[in-house]
Amino acid sequence: MVTSFVILIIGFAALVWSADRFVYGAAALAKNMGIPTLIIGLTVVAMGSSAPEMMVSASAALAGKTDTAVGNAVGSNITNILLVLGITALLRPLSVSSTTLKREMPLVLLVSVASWYIFSDNFFSFAEGVALLIGFIVFIAGLVIISLRDKNQADDPFVSEACEDIPDNVSTGSALFWLIIGMILLPISSHFLVGSAVDIAKYFGLSDLVIGLTIIAIGTSLPELAACIAGVLKNEDDLALGNIVGSNLFNLLAVLPLAGIINPSIIDPSAANRDALIMIGATIALIAMSLNLRGARRINRIEGGLLLVAFIAYQGYIFSQIG
């Protein structure tokens, strides 16, 4: 069992590092190919923090662990809002001024409700996975079109902060090197991570869904936590919040579909009866805090503390149901 924990920790570290290198190489290569900075910032960079979830869910689905893949996507969204945003807001209240984020937040809620509907019959089909993936393609296409048409888009705080994260003056050879390194290490690290997590789950009597909702979801949300903390320390509130909003959208539209497409199967009823509802509630709380009707568009420390307490309570409830 000690070996499994060591492999799990090494797997998480390798996963996060390889995801960072993959995004670095992809963003630099895209820039060298002449793709507009605005498009790279809103797609490659914004999508980067969801790369670990994507690899882990694919590995889990390939291993026949659809519940783990589903738990990873849903659990990551819950963790992003309740844990990551909670800790970030405790460090410093977050102001919300980005028009892009205000437009995307209701979309996160809509897709969350759609995911709950998909889970409600306790079966995740191939067609449902494809439908979500089509939704992702439409979202990216719409984002690109709006970005190209809206001349004021570049002045949006979230967009400008995301564009600043694009690596500059990187040679094409170096970009390709890091892209390839990321592409090789991402699936390898995710394979060992999922394998060790399954061993730990079996040892402690955890279900496939629970292991995805807890250990794996928290681990794959580490890039979002690091990005959010770095964002607030640099006074880039919109970028910090944008990492969470963007990641949650990608988790449901690009990560979750992999479970249904790769391994359509029956899923744990708790995914619909408990976890998807918690995800919807957390998303509603995020919107309510971010778009405060009283005029103070900021997530304060008290709200951050409430989110963190909710996360601890949720984790405690999950483990109390084991046995």
Description of the molecule:
This protein is mainly alpha-helical and about 325 residues long. It has a single domain, classed as NCX, central ion-binding region (A middle domain of Talin 1). Helix content is about 80%, strand content about 0%. A two-stranded antiparallel sheet has the order 1-4. A two-stranded antiparallel ribbon has the order 2-3. α5 runs antiparallel to α12. The two termini are about 20 Å apart. The model has no long low-confidence stretch (mean pLDDT about 85).
Give a quick rundown of the structure:
The protein is 80% helix and 2% strand. It has one domain (2-320): A middle domain of Talin 1. The protein is built from 13 helices and 4 strands.
Question: Top keywords for this entry?
Answer:
two-stranded antiparallel sheet, 323 residues, mainly alpha, 80% helix, 13 helices, 4 strands, A middle domain of Talin 1
In CATH terms, the superfamily is: NCX, central ion-binding region
- Report how far apart the termini are: 20 Å
How many DSSP-defined strands?
4
Shape descriptor = globular
